[in-house]
Design brief:
Keywords: Membrane, Transmembrane, Transmembrane helix. It is a multi-pass membrane protein. The protein has a domain of about 150 residues. Helix content is about 35%, strand content about 10%. Strands 2, 3, 4, 6, 7, 8 and 9 form a seven-stranded antiparallel beta sheet that branches. The protein has a two-stranded antiparallel ribbon with strand order 1-5. A hairpin with a 4-residue loop joins strand 2 and strand 3. It is extended.
């Protein structure tokens, strides 16, 4: 570093190094063609046609293990922070959801109490399901339909429903209805037990009901959640929905006084019973199968994708690339799996219909774990859309199931829309599904 004799430099000053001399740039090597990378199609788990009942979980033996089951489940799934968040101090009213602080012991105690006391709710749920699904016979279900029709034409009788429920409970538990009860009217029957005993059959049945209810609620949530973004201004369709809702509201408002409410509620209330009737359950699938619902679904998805295209997409040439998803039935786990594919057969994801052009065992090939396509120079994937499953399955004459799967034998031959019973005995069942995605010609990628 050069020193200046005519400048007084303080002792506490830190010298600053000068920039190194510029090094002449080396000769640039020619760049290889960039690879176009996209994510794999989102293959959602579907209902297995071969599975008749869910696999029974192994029940631990011993009352102690069963009694400690809620604590083990909660302790293994909950990872509480060192300082859990407390209730909002700005709110002077303590809500039910924030009444007690978060604690594993409290959750365990309340969960045990909940299991022991929620039994009547599931009992009522089973009785309603039996009546609605015609499982108690046509006489019982018809009786409830008649009661509902009577209430529709005399709606003021709804005020007497609490009295009718209380009378029904008292009549159902009357001593005369029990053959083992005494004829002495002064004999008082013992009260019913308040809680289900831990480890008993009733207690385990309640846990099974909670398990199935959580699964059903999650399935319903997953089915409805894709519609939520359209109502939260996360998509361009929210404004259209708002305008359509407002316009229809103004159109229906003058017609409200002329709508007959009693016949309307009568039809709406009896419609679920008609749909769940055994005859309807046999005929509705045949009627729905004859309707072009898959083609309508494909048309709606394509119209939605076209609406999201940008101007440079419309001004360029569009093509489609295809991909096939391959799976094999695993007898040991009773599930469809890509890991069950044999080493000498097709791989999980293939580009060609022959099922062989794709990812090899060492990771090379046209389709990798990130789905790297060697597209021609200048071509790119449309950024506003993703992979779409082919539910119509026009590429095969056999057709497909509702999720687009085409089932074949162990040698990937003899395609059908559903697995055959003969394939179960041979132990080899395979299936594949067709995926498509659009690409466009991008001039900026050629330069």
């Amino acid at each position: 570093m050069a020193a200046f004799n005519y400048v007084a430099i303080p002792s506490y000053a830190t010298p600053v190094e000068s920039d190194p001399p510029a090094v002449p740039s080396e000769r640039k090597e020619p760049r290889s063609a960039p690879k176009v990378v996209t994510s794999l199609p989102h293959s959602q788990p579907t209902q297995d046609p071969l599975r008749t009942s869910p696999t029974n979980a192994t029940t631990p033996s011993g009352k102690s293990a069963l009694g400690n089951l809620p604590g083990l489940l909660l302790a293994s799934t909950l990872q509480l922070p060192a300082n859990p968040p407390t209730a909002n101090l700005r709110s002077s009213v303590s809500l039910l959801s924030t009444r007690d602080p978060l604690s594993v012991p409290t959750i365990t105690v309340n969960f045990r109490r909940f299991i022991a006391k929620i039994g009547p709710v599931f009992w009522l749920q089973d009785r309603i399901e039996e009546v609605l699904m015609w499982r108690k016979g046509w006489k019982v279900t018809t009786l409830w339909m008649t009661v509902y029709a009577f209430l529709c034409y005399f709606p003021r009788l709804i005020l007497l429903i609490p009295h009718a429920i209380l009378l029904g409970v008292l009549v159902a538990g009357h001593p005369s209805r029990r053959p083992e009860s005494s004829d002495d009217p002064d004999v008082i029957l013992p009260p019913p037990k308040a809680n289900a005993r831990e480890g008993s059959a009733e207690w385990l049945a309640i846990i099974q009901a909670i398990q199935n209810l959580m699964g059903a609620f999650s399935d319903g949530y997953d089915a409805v959640f894709p519609l939520v973004p359209h109502l939260t201004y996360s998509t361009p369709y929210t404004t259209r929905i708002l305008i359509l809702t407002f316009v229809t509201f103004l159109l229906v408002l003058p017609l409200v006084p002329f709508i007959p409410l009693r016949p309307l509620f009568l039809v709406l209330g009896l419609l679920p019973f008609i749909i769940t009737h055994p005859v309807s359950q046999r005929t509705l699938p045949v009627i729905l199968a004859a309707l072009p619902l898959r083609r309508l679904h494909t048309w709606v998805v394509r119209a939605t994708d076209d609406d999201r295209l940008k101007d440079h997409h419309w001004q360029s040439q569009l093509r489609e690339v295809e991909l096939f998803e391959n799976e094999r039935w695993n007898i040991e786990t009773a599930q469809w799996s890509k890991a069950a594919l044999k080493a000498s057969e097709r791989v999980p994801w293939t580009r060609g219909r022959d099922g062989w052009s794709g990812l090899s065992t060492d990771g090379s090939g046209d389709v990798s774990s990130n789905l790297t396509f060697a597209l021609e120079p200048g071509w790119a994937f449309v950024e506003t859309e993703d992979w779409r499953a082919d539910f119509e399955a026009l590429w095969t004459e056999s057709g497909s199931d509702d999720d687009g799967w085409v089932y074949t034998n162990d040698a990937w031959l003899d395609p059908h829309s559903a697995p055959l019973e003969d394939w179960r005995t041979t132990g080899g069942i395979t299936r594949r599904r067709h995926w498509t995605r659009r690409i466009y010609f991008n001039l900026s990628r050629t330069t």
